Amino acid sequence: MDLAYIPSPSQSVWHLFGVVPIRGYALAIISGIVIACVITEVRLRRRGAAPGTVIDIALWAVPFGIVGARIYHVITSPDAYFGVDGVPMDAFAIWKGGLGIPGAIVAGALGAWIACRRLGVPLSMVADALAPGLPVAQAVGRLGNWFNQELYGGPLDAWWAVEIDQQNRLAGYMDVATYHPTFLYELLWNLGLALLVWLLDRRLKFGKGRAFALYVLGYGIGRFWIEGMRIDPAQDFLGLRLNQWMSVAIIVGALIYLLRVEGKRDVLVPGADGVLKAVPYDSPEALAGEADVDADETVTEDDDPDEESEDEASRDGETGDAGENEKATEDGKV
């Protein structure tokens, strides 16, 4: 069947055992967080971090990030909660949708900083490890907007337009059925950004938070473009939506960071006191650590040097005994 548009989900909530609500928006957010944690865990281990480090950091960063994202959304869209027809208590109803990524980044970074201080891991290293995983998480999370039929763009008559049910259409658009699927635009943009960050980081070995700054730069550019398509009510200033001004700010900030901050990728190695410390990946300490690991991996039970020495000594003893027996036999014959 040829589709003239992208249909919206027929429902966004399922009830487990008829009682517990399972919301598509929440599933999208949680799935994105899990994927980001897995990607970051792999990248942190390759930098010398202990297994499970990302979980210790996520326990701080995720709650901070969710709260920050919600606060940012409420501040930038106050009419829905404190306007004439607003419902103030809905400011706490996260499951109904409404999370601002800039707020999540700032507050999540604060939570991650607290965790990194407790663990003794550089925040910049964690940020660089997170850089490709975060846009993947955002891409998956954008599916939540699709389930909620929210944050769509202007009217569009094309095969990739998304259909919005009448009860979810904005005032003044009740007779318009299909719109720009801004959730899909941002999903694809973020996946492309994740691939770009991963490829450049693999080639250039960014350090000191520069991979994360590249992600912030790319996200800001994409968000500025996509935000301009949206038609939901928002605060504006000088013809631009508030989120577009925020995008400009983070673009400028990311560019300044990339131009001013230099440094190679760090890895964690044991210090003289046994405590992990961060050193450049190509430093003698880091290379020595890799050599030690390679040496440990090549030594097995079959080629243990101590066992080889014992085997050689045993063979020498057996050879000596055999030689003496042969000599005694010859003497007897004589």
In spatial order, strands of the major sheet run 1-2
* Helix proportion: 55-70%
pLDDT < 50 runs, ≥5 residues = 291-302, 327-334
The coarse silhouette is elongated
Distance between the termini: 105 Å
Radius of gyration: 30 Å
Total strands? 8
Structural class, judged by helices and strands? Answer: mainly alpha
What fraction strand?
A: 5-15%
Question: What are the secondary-structure elements, in order, as H or E?
Answer: EEHHHHHHHEEHHEEHEEHH
Q: For the residues shown, what is the average pLDDT?
A: 85
Total domains: 2
Main sheet specs: 2 strands, antiparallel
In summary, what is this structure?
This protein has twelve helices and eight strands. The protein is mainly alpha-helical and 334 residues long.
What does it look like?
The protein has 334 residues and is mostly helical. The protein has 2 domains: 13-263, no CATH class; 283-333. 59% of the residues lie in helices and 8% in strands. The chain contains 12 helices and 8 strands. The strands form 4 sheets. It has a two-stranded antiparallel ribbon with strand order 1-2. The longest helix is centred in the C-terminal third of the chain and has 29 residues, at 305-333. The chain starts with 12 loop residues before the first strand and ends with a helix. The model is unreliable at 291-302 and 327-334 (pLDDT under 50). Belongs to the Lgt family. Keywords: Cell membrane, Lipoprotein, Membrane, Transferase, Transmembrane, Transmembrane helix. Catalyzes the transfer of the diacylglyceryl group from phosphatidylglycerol to the sulfhydryl group of the N-terminal cysteine of a prolipoprotein, the first step in the formation of mature lipoproteins. Its EC number is 2.5.1.145.
